[in-house]
Amino acid sequence: MKIKKSIILTSVTALLGLFLLNACNGENDQQAERVEQERQELVSNLENLKEDLDARIDELGNRIEEAGDDVSESAEEAYRELRDDRSELERTIDEVKNASQDSWDRVKTEAENVYDSVSNQFNEWMDELNN
After folding, report:
1. Residue 76 is part of which domain span?
2. DSSP 51
3. Looking at the domain assignment, is residue 6 inside a domain?
4. Buried b (16+ CB within 10 A) or exposed e, 14-49
5. CA nearest to 74, candidates 124, 114, 40, 115
6. Exposure winner among 9, 60, 68, 95, fewest CB in 10 A?
7. In this predicted model, what pLDDT tens digit does every residue of 9-64 receive, in sequence order?
């Protein structure tokens, strides 16, 4: 009788362990799906901003070339800063693409901050250049 109770208890414990393991795996799968969806959305946003930045860098580069010696210092500064911002976006895109699930929350926050910063600065420079 004692052996049967031990076998039953061991079986119940094993089944409970399997149940908990499956529950944890389900949560991990959901978290992995959430991270991947957020990653794709963030990469898309960053790449779209980079494309806009590339177009403006080309446009500004052409303006500077056409102006020759008459180019303003602010235009040259804007050009340098936009190129720096593009480099920062490229690094951020790589970090987002390569972030592990464990580092995701930190990388996501940093990437969103870079996006906001570059986007705001980009809009400010465009307003200034159009005036």
Report:
1. 39-130
2. H
3. no
4. eeeeeeeeeeeeeeeeeeeeebeeebeebbebbeeb
5. 124
6. 68
7. 565 565 555 555 555 556 677 888 888 999 999 999 999 999 998 998 898 888 88
Asked whether 125 and 82 are in contact (CB, 8 A), the reply is: yes
Q: How many domains does the chain have?
A: 1
CA distance 122 to 85: 9
Considering the chain, what is the average pLDDT of its residues? 80
Pull the structure tokens for residue 107: 């990388």
The CA-based angle 53-54-60, given to 5 degrees, is: 85
Query: What phi and psi, each to the nearest 5 degrees, are found at residue 95?
Result: -65, -40
Tokens of 88: 């920062």
pTM of the model as a whole: 0.71
Closest of 44, 57, 111, 55 to residue 84, by C-alpha: 57
| Separation CA 46–CA 27 (nearest Å) | 28
Rounded Cα–Cα distance for residues 45 and 52 (Å) = 11
